[in-house]
Amino acid sequence: MRVAVVGDGLVGLSAALHLSRGGAEVVVYARPDTIGQASQVAAGMLGVMAEREWAPIDRLMVEARRYWKEFADLLTSESGIEVRIGEEGTFFVLQREEERPHLVELNRRTVRLGFSSEWFERDECEELHPLLTGQFIGALLVLEEGWVNPRRVYPALVQACEEAGVRTVSEEVVQVGVRGGHAELLLESGERVEADGALVAAGAWSGDLIEPGLAEGFSTHPVRGQYLLLRSPGHVGWPVVRSVAELAYLVPSLGADYLYLGASVEEKQWGPPEDFSAAFRVLDGMTRVMPGLAELEVTERGYGLRPATPDGLPAIGPLGEGAVYVATGHYRNGVLMGPLTGKLAAEEILGEDHGELLGPVRPARFASQGG
Predict the structure, then answer these.
(1) CATH at residue 273
(2) Omega before 72 within 30 of 0, i.e. cis
(3) How far apart are CA 96 and CA 371, in angstroms?
(4) pLDDT in tens, 227-258
């Protein structure tokens, strides 16, 4: 079976790896210009608890978190590059009393999903995170929340795909459609390529690639996020910190001397920002909780384009009669959900059915929603 994968991010390459391991002949079409691709510049959080609005897919997110251990072991084995998971948990910091109902609900959800949590008063938090010395009431530590370093995951995944025989073509696909029951790709050069099936996993660009009429109501748009890297040697064993009030997060790197601070939320913004003032506003907000951040050197400023759908949930499943499959729209949870999404997409393309797990995210739902 010949399968064309459009998109070389975490979802696309994970699918390509599993397709190849399942016996398919796989070609990945990579955008020549991948600036802004979310999976390569993400913070790397494996967090289920922060996304209240994603309750319809709680089970999918929990399964995605559980799958990461198997995926990390697979990448380490196949690539020779060690992929580690940070397991110190995530602090959800309470700054003001009016935010407490959200934290109470988050704790209820933690229990409902089978996770564990522990409340820490302000003066207790510094023992686990030396930078937590600012103005806040306390924090809820969710122990199962983890993180990875995408800057190690991505090259390991690329290497694993190469070892599995996946071929990569650096040529832009401008449209994906169906001809005679097969998938057809129109390349920027004008060439048309036929395959038994195609997976569109091109992040925020995915919706624009689908041939008109193939997916009624389905579309994607970017949500730009700006981030900063702050130099911080020796941050071993620190949890992630998420601010309930600021909608911001600070993530320790694994195997590198920086902290990742993110991220702004800028709807339907393509391309780079004019400046990085939004990222520095995030920094200003987090210094209320962690004053020591103001003393750290900013070593990198960057941005990513998160893919979002009209209803904010992912779109994973076949279009039309099934020759074209789409997997995108993970918004702020691409790193968490990307590997499992790729695995499930690959297995369905090869003939399995994961309808029970993927039912809430089928792209066909957009037609019934009226777009």
Answers:
(1) 3.30.9.10
(2) no
(3) 39
(4) 999 999 888 889 999 998 777 999 999 888 99
